TrEMBL record:
The lineage of its organism: Bacteria, Bacillati, Actinomycetota, Actinomycetes, Streptosporangiales. GO terms for molecular function: DNA binding; sigma factor activity. Residues 1-12 have a biased composition (Low complexity). This is RNA polymerase sigma-70 factor (ECF subfamily). Keywords: Sigma factor, Transcription, Transcription regulation. Residues 236-331 form the SnoaL-like domain. InterPro entries: NTF2-like_dom_sf (IPR032710), RNA_pol_sigma-70-like (IPR039425), RNA_pol_sigma-70_dom (IPR014284), RNA_pol_sigma-G_actinobac (IPR014305), RNA_pol_sigma70_r2 (IPR007627), RNA_pol_sigma70_r4_t2 (IPR013249), RNA_pol_sigma_r2 (IPR013325), RNA_pol_sigma_r3/r4-like (IPR013324). The keyword Transcription applies. One of its GO terms (biological process) is DNA-templated transcription initiation. Residues 1-24 are annotated as: Disordered. It holds the Pfam family Sigma70_r2. Residues 36-104 form the RNA polymerase sigma-70 region domain. Interacts transiently with the RNA polymerase catalytic core formed by RpoA, RpoB, RpoC and RpoZ (2 alpha, 1 beta, 1 beta' and 1 omega subunit) to form the RNA polymerase holoenzyme that can initiate transcription.
């Protein structure tokens, strides 16, 4: 009884502290401002990644948004929560970035799949490629109970890739409503538009995303598979790659499996094409592999390292994100480049 009766007092005390801190921050205390926004940085970063499709762009957007918020703090009148206001600033920052940079893509967006391995495939540098997301520490956030997507579902690769096919305003409306639980009226205020426009953007966005995002979600699939079986599947995949065992690898794949490797433009669809690529390139044509397991986009992932004779070590090569259907791998997306490793806390090399 005493615990329940203390909750309003504790809540009031917290609100009083936040209001006191806001007054100090408006007065120019940057340390207090940093303390106020620190608990929100992670979820703001995830929001910016969903909007922009790049961890590095999300880094820049969060930094720019918090700088804008600090400079404009005197204009924050407290009519909404600090969290809502920061999401407003972050969303508008992302919309500015989308307008200047356009959307990010995967190889599947650029052309048809290849039937046979392209051994001399070279990177395409004039495309803004979608990137993987290090989801360690990404919790459930503070979305409303009726938000459609869980926080981890909303960083799944298929979902973020689908978002890239939406105009910026539709992307923002969908994320703010379906992922973060803001109301249409709140979103209209945040985006300086009408509730009718928000509802129209939501309707259009849902059509596109529903067509492009498979069901069940990876989160639902992974829960059904279970942690122990998932570890077996990932271990089977890495062992097959490192031992050059094509039969073992094929046994783990669905018949309609896809494998893509941004920034390389060619991709493969179906067990025959993927097998031809796997046997001719990573299993026999690349040399010695090592790996470190991780998670990316709410999905199992593997950091792959390829032997470099000059360095005398296995150097960072790609972060491969796995999608499952049942207990088989239905999609492999290998993000090639050492720049992907640091955000995951993965080392640059292995022995």
């Amino acid at each position: 009884m005493s615990q329940d009766s203390s909750e309003p007092a504790e809540s009031t005390a917290t609100e009083d502290t936040e209001e006191s801190d806001l007054i100090r921050a408006r007065g120019g205390d940057s340390d207090v401002f940093d303390r106020l926004v620190a608990p929100l940085r992670r979820e703001l970063h995830a929001h910016c990644y969903r909007m922009l499709g790049s961890t590095h762009d999300a880094d820049d957007a969060v930094q720019e948004a918090l700088l804008r918020a600090w400079r404009g703090l005197a204009r924050f009148e407290g009519r909404s929560s600090l969290r809502s206001w920061l999401y407003t600033v972050a969303t508008r920052t992302c919309l500015d970035s989308i307008e200047s940079r356009g959307r990010r893509a995967l190889p599947i967006d650029l052309g048809p799949s290849s039937d046979r391995a392209v051994v001399d495939d070279t990177p395409v540098t004039d495309v803004a490629w979608l990137g993987p997301y290090p989801d360690v520490g990404l919790g459930d956030g503070r979305a409303a109970p009726d938000a459609r997507y869980e926080q981890r579902e909303a960083v799944e690769l298929a979902f973020v890739a689908a978002l890239q096919h939406l105009p910026g305003n539709q992307r923002a409306a969908l994320l703010l409503f379906e992922v973060l639980g803001f109301s249409a009226a709140e979103i209209a205020t945040m985006m300086d538009t009408s509730t009718t426009s928000v509802n129209s953007a939501l309707a259009r966005a849902r059509v596109v995303v529903t067509k492009r995002v498979p069901a069940p979600t990876q989160q639902q699939t992974l829960r059904a598979v279970g942690d122990a079986r998932l570890r077996e599947i990932v271990s089977g995949y890495t062992t097959a790659l490192e031992h050059g065992d094509g039969d073992a690898l094929v046994a783990l794949l669905t018949e309609d499996v896809t494998w893509s490797m941004p920034p390389r433009p060619h991709w493969y669809h179906g067990i025959d094409a993927v097998t031809d690529f796997a046997v001719r390139v990573p299993l026999t044509g690349c040399g010695s592999w090592r790996h470190s397991t991780t998670t990316a986009n709410g999905q199992p992932a593997v950091g792959h390292y390829l032997w470099d004779e000059a360095a005398g070590a296995h150097l960072s090569w790609s972060v491969t994100v796995l999608a499952l259907r049942g207990e088989r791998i239905s999609e492999l997306t290998s993000f090639i480049g050492p720049e992907h490793f640091a955000p995951f806390g993965l080392p640059d090399s292995l022995p």
